[in-house]
Design a protein that fits this description.
- There is one protein chain.
- The chain has nine helices and six strands.
- By secondary structure, the protein is α/β, with parallel strands linked by helices.
- The chain has one domain: Undecaprenyl pyrophosphate synthetase (3-Layer(aba) Sandwich).
- Helix 2 runs parallel beside helix 3 (67-83) and helix 3 packs parallel to helix 5 (106-118).
- Bound molecules: 3-methylbut-3-enyl trihydrogen diphosphate (2 copies) and magnesium ion (MG).
């Protein structure tokens, strides 16, 4: 496999509100444009053959926002999940979920599950929607799944990296190689804390609704030029090697 091209790209899609504000528009308008950008980038990633794309859509902390804004974002998610099945089919896109479905409105949790099931056999890009997702929350849920499982039932078992990894939301999805964040912020905001241990970062100053296919290409080009050492020396092997 070409290691210059990431197998898994994660995107912290930030700046919808500032995009709207800079135009004298409402925050919901920004989220609407953000959805269009997400669709554009999913298509671009699929056309480029990127195997995995994780989109940070709604964090476990985003519930702190006004109920109107939260409801608007949830309505957009609902509409997107329902309307896009043909698009997924045409492009072979498989939908997955990361995050805790239990706090989502029940119909959205069901739509999400349906989208995941309907696209399960598609062989193109796997798009992981991080929805009610928090990195710490995922690790806590993973630890609780591990405790509930067989290794601990008869006592004496210990946590290992492999055990926790196997209990994450999508254990078969490889760690992100590249994490893109828009809107110029240099922080991880609780995204993929476990998985991002050796991710490369690319920060774009653009607000998410303005992020284009060309910007994705630039991020991929920058990634291709990085020397990933994983704590070793030049041209090193992955963290598990
Ligand atoms: C990202 O845009 C979308 C979500 C977090 C749901 P923001 O809504 O955070 O936009 P800013 O950061 O306020 O500009
Ligand atoms: C991160 O953006 C979450 C998503 C993009 C869904 P935030 O806007 O919530 O992050 P902070 O508050 O700037 O750290
Ligand atoms: Mg933000």
């Amino acid at each position: 496999m070409d290691t210059r091209s990431p197998a898994h790209v994660g995107i912290i899609m930030d700046g919808n509100g500032r995009w709207a504000q800079s135009r004298g528009q409402s925050r919901p308008q920004g989220h609407l444009e953000g959805l269009k950008a997400a669709k554009r980038i999913v298509k671009a990633a699929s056309d480029r053959g990127i195997p995995y794309l994780t989109l940070y859509t709604f964090s476990t902390e985003n519930w702190k926002r006004d109920v109107e804004e939260v409801s608007f974002i949830m309505a957009l998610v609902r509409r997107y999940l329902r309307a896009e099945l043909d698009f997924y089919r045409e492009n072979g896109i498989r939908i997955r979920h990361a995050g805790d479905p239990s706090r989502l409105p029940q119909d959205i949790a069901e739509e999400l599950q349906r989208a995941c099931e309907d696209t399960r056999d598609f062989k193109g890009t796997q798009v992981v929607l991080a929805l009610n997702y928090g990195g710490r929350d995922e690790i806590v849920r993973a630890a609780n799944r591990a405790l509930a499982g067989a290794p601990f039932a008869d006592g004496g078992a210990r946590f290992t990296e492999a055990l926790i990894r196997s209990c994450l939301d999508n254990p078969d999805v490889p760690d992100p190689d590249l994490i893109i964040r828009t809107a110029g912020e240099f922080r991880i905001s609780n995204f993929l804390l476990w998985e991002a241990a050796y991710a490369e970062y690319y920060i774009s100053d653009k607000f998410w609704p303005d992020f284009s296919d060309g910007d994705l290409e630039t991020a991929l080009d920058r990634y291709a030029a990085r020397d990933r050492r994983y704590g070793g020396l030049r041209g090193g092997k992955g963290p598990a090697a």
